[in-house]
């Protein structure tokens, strides 16, 4: 459902990803691994339309999407939870969630995804009237994922969802990712926490200084002799 | 100086009515600043354009200004959004010194509009003669209220109620709030920030259109009329807190009251003294203004 081929993007004047190609099937989880600065975040931002690609193509459900603006890409069914979450800090949890379904504002069932969101993250229900800025790091991550789900994505992209979050909540977030994929949502997951992400992934690509250096099923990557060095990015 | 109770009420009431109009003038400035951190130095000229537009429409159509308020307000909505789409949008792309680029752009736009008015319409003072409400007044328990100011004050309150309803009750209002918070993030929920900016400038223009429509019924119309109101509007915005529309309402009322009181206690020529004294006190004691966020 997503095909990336020969994608090159410069970030602040430097080539951040170079000639990256991969594809994901509907309902799969693909993890993108690699050291800091390997280009993982730039790859997701380029797909989301927040960075411009220099060459290559991104096609989503058969249509080319690179060159489209970020809000158009969201409207096509790709939701992105960036590394710094980008919540609306001085709006309530409720407002953040209902902004998530802005594209469905004229539909009577705009709030339909709320049931599953509260099932995944019950704490959000208790925090509905709090400002987003008052949430803990883990709760903010849950809200960011919740807001993304309100947009009813067919492709969900998560950038470092476990970053800076206490271990108990990390487990909850990974559990949630597994449940989300059961509803046929395709997931791209950028994660430093390689062992944990390989547990839930179907396939993996490993980036090193902007290039794909390894690819395969999660099991192949787990057993690959080079994974340690590739992951450390030496 | 001893003042009777009625005289004090009289002063406070006229201060309140003028203050509501100051608040309306400042609200558009504050709305745009809060939305995208751009100070529109041409805001006073938007007001001037609205007043001339009203003058021209009244002259051409012979209709009463009250009937033309919606027309002028709608035209200024178009002017505001047009200025964003045609000019301001491009200043957002400045890689360095974006703030300065925007200051000079809006300041220059203001000068151009004023210059055009001077050369095309002459620097003469004009005023709209007979209207349904001009020269009339309402008297309640010995307090005398000029009808144009009274109608203007009521319209200003109504405009603030509408802004409040729009921000708190509509999806557009929520999108506006979200864009104020993080314009770069609204694309994540499928909102086009350029559309929100365009509408924001449109509403900012419309508010100056309404304020200009009100002022045109009892104030002289001349090419630099905007500058005198813009200075008060800046003080209002700073006093209320940059970017806070409700702050502009509170600050506008305070400024109107202080101005009217100072004019009576000292002399009308020194009416701004009290206003700037209050402003200095706020800047020293609470630099972010009454309702500004830190």
What does this structure look like?
- The complex is a heterodimer of chains A (234) and B (294).
- Chain A is an alpha/beta fold and 234 residues long.
- Chain A has a single domain, classed as 3-Layer(aba) Sandwich (Rossmann fold), CATH 3.40.50.300.
- Chain A has helices spanning 40-48, 70-75, 93-100, 114-120, 122-126, 137-150, 167-182, 194-200, 218-223, 227-232, and strands at 2-11, 14-24, 29-34, 55-60, 63-64, 78-81, 155-159, 186-190, 203-208, 211-217.
- In chain A, the strands form 2 sheets. A 6-stranded mixed beta sheet of chain A has the order 6-7-8-3-9-10, with helices on both faces.
- In chain A, a hairpin with a 2-residue loop joins strand 1 (2-11) and strand 2.
- In chain A, helix 3 packs parallel to helix 6.
- Chain A starts with a strand and ends with a helix.
- With 294 residues, chain B is mainly α.
- Chain B has one domain (5-285): Orthogonal Bundle (ABC transporter involved in vitamin B12 uptake, BtuC), CATH 1.10.3470.
- In chain B, 72% of the residues lie in helices and 3% in strands.
- Chain B has a two-stranded antiparallel ribbon with strand order 1-2.
- In chain B, helix 2 runs parallel beside helix 4.
- Chain B is globular.
- Classes of the chains: A alpha/beta (234), B mainly alpha (294).
- The interface between A and B is medium-sized, with 29 and 18 residues.
